[in-house]
Amino acid sequence: MIRYTQTYERWTEADIEAGATDDQGIVEAQAQASFRDMVKALQFCERVEGAPMPWFTDGDWNNGTREWYEQGIQEARSYHPETERDARWMTKAHEYHNPPPGDDCTRGEHDQ
Question: Measuring CA to CA, how many Å separate 107 from each of 56, 94, 97?
Answer without folding.
Answer: 18, 12, 6
